[in-house]
Amino acid sequence: MAILGKNTVLPLLETSKSSLPHRLFKSITRLIPRYERCTCNECEVFSGVFGNTFWHENLSPSMHYWLNKENVTKLPMAAFPHLRKICNTGNIVDSEGNNSYLIHPERMPLPTLYISGGRSLLVTPETSFLANNYMKLHQPGFRHERDVVEGFGHSDLLIGEESYKKVFPHITSHIRSAERENGAISVGGRKYSIEAMDWEDDPYEQYGGFSTWFSPCVVILLFLMLVALCLSMFNVF
Ligand SMILES: [Zn+2]
């Protein structure tokens, strides 16, 4: 921010006029390590500021062009000190660094759905895991669900070429379920206790899921071993 000076709005287009501080800032962003490099100058600067926000293979060329050449042509940087405070704290805080939001879960009486990319990029699936548990704990009367979609990272979940097939069905399904329940879930319906909540989701699903460790073959093998053990005991006695 010190490099930018007073004008904190960064022009991103390669063809736009840039001041010396802005050119210096953009040169530094290109040096910052990231998962994927790109031949597009604007994409390189944007990824240097935020980190890669999508896996390139999930975007069509036309979407990539629109993002970098038409959608975001200027980047206001004034919010970054606030973002830094959020990242350093580990949860959302206000611009002064105060915990002003998470202390008021009663202000969010609504159903929620969390979707993370299973091919981690920019953020980890743990963020949606924690958010989902927070809402289940504080707003148990509403439907809260979470999905981890394999092959996606972050923004490509919504703007990916295959999003309409692999991601959007989770959203429409959740909306239909929430509407059927009229937002709130009855007391006799789905209810979450703290203990149940701890086991509701699988934090290891990005590694293939805990359940996959116990495939049907393994269960059958364990059963056969149990039968063999019983037979051997029978022979002894
Ligand atoms: Zn790119």
UniProtKB/TrEMBL annotation:
<protein>
    <submittedName>
        <fullName>Uncharacterized protein</fullName>
    </submittedName>
</protein>
<feature type="transmembrane region" description="Helical">
    <location>
        <begin position="213"/>
        <end position="234"/>
    </location>
</feature>
<dbReference type="InterPro" id="IPR052542">
    <property type="entry name" value="Cholesterol_Oxidase"/>
</dbReference>
<keyword id="KW-0472">Membrane</keyword>
<dbReference type="GO" id="GO:0016491">
    <property type="term" value="F:oxidoreductase activity"/>
</dbReference>
<keyword id="KW-1133">Transmembrane helix</keyword>
<keyword id="KW-0560">Oxidoreductase</keyword>
<keyword id="KW-0274">FAD</keyword>
<keyword id="KW-0812">Transmembrane</keyword>
<keyword id="KW-0285">Flavoprotein</keyword>
<dbReference type="InterPro" id="IPR029058">
    <property type="entry name" value="AB_hydrolase_fold"/>
</dbReference>
